[in-house]
Amino acid sequence: MTRQLYFSNNFRRIMDMENDSLYLDVNSLPRYFYQFIEEVNNMLLLQDVETEKKYYLKDLKEVMDNDSFSSDRDNKYIIQVDIKEIGNFIENLYFYFFDVVSDKILLYVMCEKISYGSKYQTSLYEIMYKENLCLKSNLIVDKIYLIEDKGIFDIKEDLFYGYDNLKKFYLDRKYNDDLLHAFFEENLYSFLYLDNLEELKKSKLYQNSNIWLGKNYLFQVPINLKMLTFNPIMHKEFEYLIKMGLFNLAFGEGIDDIKYQGSFSKTFGVDKKYLPFMKKINITSYELEIMKQYPTNNEKLLRYMCEFFDCIDRVWEYLSPYQLLEYLQKQGLGEMYTYEYLDYLDACKKMGFDMKDKEVLFPQNLLDSHDKILLEFTLVTNPLLDDKIKNLSELLELNIYNDDKYVIFPASNISSLIDESTQMNNCVRLYSEKIGDNECQIYFMRLKDSKDKSLVTIEVRNGKVVQAKTKFNNEVDKDEMEVIKKWEKHLLPIINEKK
After folding, report:
1. Which residue, 318, 346, 381, sits at the end of a domain?
2. What does the pLDDT read at residue 134?
3. I need a labelling partner for 63 at 20 to 30 A (CA). Which of 108, 159, 389, 417 fits?
4. Do 49 and 137 share a domain, yes or no?
């Protein structure tokens, strides 16, 4: 059985706001609290997509605040990681901790302050081998909140967060105020200590919330103050959601839009037969909004519709999203080629094709058919455009660049733009009229020994590079950008005669 947290001075002195004598007796921490911190530090954070090496929360010293890291230093000192997705570099880890004393609810924010040092490099922005790093950790009490029905007090800092505003906020359920919004978003990347969570049953505010049923969920996700206070206290739907195991809805922002209306279907907008599926995937509010319009119990299809929601209505005009997803898989293409498929269909429709013909809807080779129909459509609607681009490219050849590794050359015709757009999964093909009128210029950067394979698409205006993107409009790497900047310095501006 875990012990509660108590202050060395009695609770009355806390209420008197005598902060000079307010401190936490570390010996009163529950015996499992440090074990919990160790467990959090060992949570899997990410995995290198190439080497499959795993990085844990305790390895944050090896993780930077950008998506990739490279250095000119000797590789034996550098661990280079390709991070899927992570926020800013974290130097402090925060832990929330509930305690109930005399029916009063205290919420502590414990901060583990971590400092790093290296015998070779003092900068945090050098990633060194672990054995070259020194780690220091210090656990302190960052904040202490007193939670009651009339508001929330920050008693450690002797601050009172808007008693009247909070009271009105609670009663009216309005939280557009910037101060309150910032208050509830505080310590977003935090973790809740769970061993004594059921102590909240003793309090009047939490006894009907069943927040303790979310223990496993709360251990796995970063949390903020709103998840622990406003959601379980002020939303009667919280208990309803958490008992059904819909934790993302209970603790997330989506709870604000869910109002119990007497039945499952009226409350959620979908039939109750979908509940097992919703529990299985722990549905989010955004996924629920998609399901309301396109009910499904296919997880992969739901994820697909969420990612490409802006396309779904256009897809339904011709076929179901499931049919499209299945077709792309048979073509050996990723989901991002949804945009190419829709561009293909739009062009077919404008060209007067039979849009019920399966051979039109499902061509044998999507990418070849896509390029062909877009070229035909462009030439039919603007027959002089291709000649204009060809003539301009002869002038732009003055800016061709070559070195030992890369080559940069201009788009030579509409077909080359369509090919680049298809390979790179970008919209450069839509620039054809602007290119023909010389409003902008498009160049292709490629490896010298793979000139047919797209690498970087570059947009130039008035002799300056305004865009340089790799596939799916991702940023170029350090080496490529250095070459582009070197090339840009020697660009000859080819401008309209009118200008």
Report:
1. 381
2. 42
3. 108
4. yes
Average pLDDT of the chain to the nearest whole number? 77
Collapsed DSSP state (helix, strand, coil) of residue 144: strand
pLDDT at 166: 55
**Do 294 and 330 reside in the same domain of the chain?**
no
Query: Do the beta carbons of residue 444 and residue 458 sit within 8 Å?
Result: yes
Residue where the block lists tokens 């769970």: 194
Amino acid 402 reads N
- Angle of CA points 92, 83, 137, to nearest 5°: 20
**Is the Cβ–Cβ distance between 195 and 215 less than 8 Å?**
no
Q: Is residue 236 part of a domain?
A: no
**Residue (of 115, 121, 117) closest to 71 by Cα position:** 121
Supply the range of the domain harboring residue 282.
272-305
Taking alpha carbons only, the member of 371, 356, 306, 368 closest to residue 335 is 306
Q: How many domains does the chain have?
A: 4
Could you give the dihedral angle defined by the CA atoms of residues 94, 96, 97 and 99, in that order, rounded to the nearest 10 degrees?
140
For residues 132 and 119, the answer to whether their CB atoms sit within 8 Å is yes
Q: What is the pLDDT of residues 341-379, one digit of tens each?
A: 999 999 898 888 889 999 999 999 999 999 888 888 888
- Joined together, the tokens standing for residue 125 give 């922005």
Pairwise CA distance, residues 306 & 316, whole Å? 15
Q: What is the pTM of this model?
A: 0.66
Boundary residue ending a domain (349, 381, 413): 381
Q: Of 205, 12, 236, 2, which is closest to residue 97 (Cα–Cα)? A: 2
